[in-house]
Amino acid sequence: MKHYFRYMGRKQLILVYAIFLFMMVWGFDLLTTIKYGEPYDVTAFWNIFNLCALFYAGSTLLLVRAAGIKFYRSRRYALLLLGLLGTLIYFMAVRYLLEQLILPKFFEAQNYPSNISLKYFILDNTYYASIYVVLGVLFFLLENQAYNEKKQAVLQQQTRDAELQFLRSQVNPHFLFNTLNNIYSLAYERSEKTADAILRLSDLMRYMLYEKKQQVAILREWQYISSLVELQRLRFEHELPVEMELSGNADKTSLPPYFLIPFIENAFKHGDFTDNRIPLLIRLTITDNGWEFETRNKISHKNKDAMGGVGLDNIRRRLEILYPGQYKMDINDGDGLFSLRLSLNNKADDQMPGSRR
Q1: Which of 241, 97, 258, 53 is nearest to 168 (CA)?
Q2: Which helix (H) or strand (E) is 216 found in, with range?
Q3: What is the full DSSP assignment across 29-45?
């Protein structure tokens, strides 16, 4: 039942209470008739005493739940105990009002003898009232645990979304800073490429500012990468050696926007593109199970700082948040080459371990 409470909504909760009340009010008679093989009298279902029991038992459960919501969740336990005690008194008072005063007067029906003492009635009904109060408390505690778990899940999701938004925002200024530096260099040299560079930057910024979806088609991201490469070409006097390969259904597969950009930025930041025999390789292969992204470039000896930085740390964190256990990232910087291969398996039943190399 604990797991059932965890995943049920309001309608399912009402159903649980209804089934419980049915079993408490009519279940004993049903079991008795089944036990002795006697036919069940349908008219007994609407017995006036059963209807009264349904009212005071049901309202007692609701009062216990209300006391729990009001006092237990705010940790006012003394008031909670007073509320439960008041519910016990309510149960006995309503039952006495219905069965000892109203029913005899209007329906000529009476559950207890008319000469029963108030003391006996209270002692006898303390037991029955306690059953409903205790079970009401148990139901509320199970419901409250589900409530807390759902609340915690919402908070975790909000934290996750906020962190993803922060990581995503890191990409934009980092990219913009590097690109403006490149355009500044072109403008300083009075290069004819300056105007083209500003136009391409404008197109890229439009994508960065207005693409707010959680997921975009890989084709859209690939177009962004292509524009970024073209913008980087403007930095060089010679032809930039780049090989770009895209295969698979890029229009039907999606990923988070700006997801692959840090890899490209790192390649240009740390790469040596003076040797046409070793071009910058950018390859993206899409399969039915996921996709694989690969980059390879010659390492520049002019830039001595460590590979990675904000870009790769950013992408690792985003991978851990979005695709835990579904990705594998291999990095190799031997023989003067920096290569990276990122594989993502979208099949939850065929997960790959996340590499932290």
Answers
A1: 258
A2: strand 216-217
A3: HHHHHHHHTPPP-GGGG
In CATH, the number for domain 211-345 is: 3.30.565.10
Quick: pLDDT tens for 163-203: 556 555 555 566 677 778 878 888 888 888 888 888 888 87
Sign of the C-alpha dihedral computed for residues 293, 307, 269 and 242 taken in this order: negative
Q: Which residues contact 228 (CB under 8 A, 6 or more apart)?
A: 175, 204, 261, 264
Distance of CA 342 to CAs 35, 58, 168, 317, 329, Å? 67, 59, 19, 14, 4
Task: Identify residue 68 by its one-letter amino acid code.
Answer: G
CA dist 19 and 336 (Å) reads 72
The DSSP secondary structure of 236-271, one letter per residue, reads -SSPP-EEEEEES-TTT-EE-TTSSHHHHHHHHHHB
Residue type, 181: N
- Per-residue burial over 184-222, b = 16 or more CB atoms within 10 Å of its CB, e = otherwise: eebeeeebebbeebeebbeebeebbeeeeeeebbbbbbb
CA distances to 32, 43, 50, 198, 347 from 27, in Å: 9, 15, 11, 79, 47
Closest CA to 131 of 78, 72, 61: 61
Amino acid at 50: N
Domain ranges of the chain: 2-149, 211-345
List the structure tokens of 44.
């007994």
Rounded distance between C-alpha atoms, residue 268 and residue 250, angstroms: 24
DSSP secondary structure string for all residues of 80-149 = HHHHHHHHHHHHHHHHHIIIIIIHHHHT---SS-TT--HHHHHHHHHHHHHHHHHHHHHHHHHHHHHHHH
Using alpha carbons, list the distances in angstroms from residue 12 to 9, 136, 165, 170, 238: 5, 16, 35, 44, 69
- Contact between 105 and 75 under an 8 Å Cβ cutoff? The reply is no
The low-confidence residues of the chain, meaning pLDDT below 50, are 2-7, 304-308, 348-357
**How many H-runs (helices) and E-runs (strands) does the chain carry?**
11, 7
Could you read off the pLDDT of 252-300 as tens digits, one per residue?
A: 888 888 788 888 888 888 888 888 888 999 999 999 889 999 999 999 8
pLDDT tens per residue across span 216-229: 889 988 988 888 88
Q: What share of the chain is helix, strand, coil (3-state, %, to 5)?
A: 60, 10, 25
